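help with this:

***
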Amino acid sequence: MNLFERMQKLDPRYIYIVVALAIIIPLMIPYDSDNVTTPPTENLYQMIDSFAGREDRAILLSFYHDAATMPELFPMEVAILRHCFERNVKIFMLTWYPAGAPIIDYAINTVKEEYPDIQSGVDYCNFGYKPQAFAMVLGMGDNIANTMNTDAEGRKLENLPIMRGINNYSEMNLVIEFSGSSAGGTWIVYARPKFGLNVAVGVTAVMAADMYPYLQSGQLIGMLSGLKGAAEYEKLVDIFAAYRDPKIDYDNTLNENGEKILPGRPFGREILEDESSKKLTLITTQNYARYTTSEYEAFSARYPEQIHILNKLMKVDKDMIEIDIRDISPEMRTEMGEKLYREISRQTHNTEYKFKVARIGMNAQSVAHIMIIVFIILGNIGYFIQKARTAKK
């Protein structure tokens, strides 16, 4: 019995075991891979980022799904929330679906853990579950506070600081609806024609094909498609929104207009395509914060009282100064303060697991797909060889 005959008679359970391992191993042992971003994702990112730091701009997230589609949609929601928290973009959230209300809370709490200064009613506002979608969609086009009246915590919207400068769709000029079925339909039909609202969607991969006509017609300004779209957005957030220049004290440095410099940096094609940007998107564990001499001098000068700790931690390697975050003991962390520790941790570019879930999932998905393709090819080769030999007999 030759190889191909054995393959034809192979117990399917062995194939299932191999495919299972192809999924489990990349999930348990992540590896770094490049993830090329697509125009629908980039367009959405740039639209949201254009609202950064503006009192008179906000976005609305519509959680129109339940737990069944969370594996694909939840990483998108987390990535966008992280982007907004990093770049000081006001966020409003709602759901037309009762099961979506706890998902909003879960998403907020997941991201907010890393941003202790973010406040409800100031930086974000959760409307919670709202029935009568059509009336609400049209009403917000005239006045958001009068239509929604209260948030999920029962507070009057007109009294919340986040509402300063936000009246209707002229200011809350982008809605992103996450759904496992028909996403964005209500907004496209009712809000976009009448009020000019920009609409984007986050959908499961199987629904993406249905959304492309809306992208091509301009009715959607962007789209996140399945786990791939979420992985792309995670990458953009790591490269741009989560970036920090070690030389800049973002708390005290002002721009030419006398305003605080926004954390992060705006989208740039040349930055995205630069080889150095790949170091910002690694999903394997990173322990070293690396600085050039000038970067380290500027960085350490901002912490004169802790400079002796920094100098104790620093090591020189090939013209770069390194700090291994594993060398920071609990006592040393207490002495240096949480602010400095968090900044060193950020400079390692070690992304929290919850902010790279989609990329880890895409790795597993890619390996599994490759294995399935290999089995299909080998199976077909074996089948046709066997068929040819049978015909000769």
Q: What stands out?
A: The first helix runs from residue 3 to 8. The domain at 39-241 is CATH 3.40.50 (Rossmann fold). The longest strand covers residues 172-179. The CA atoms of residues 305 and 336 lie 9 Å apart.
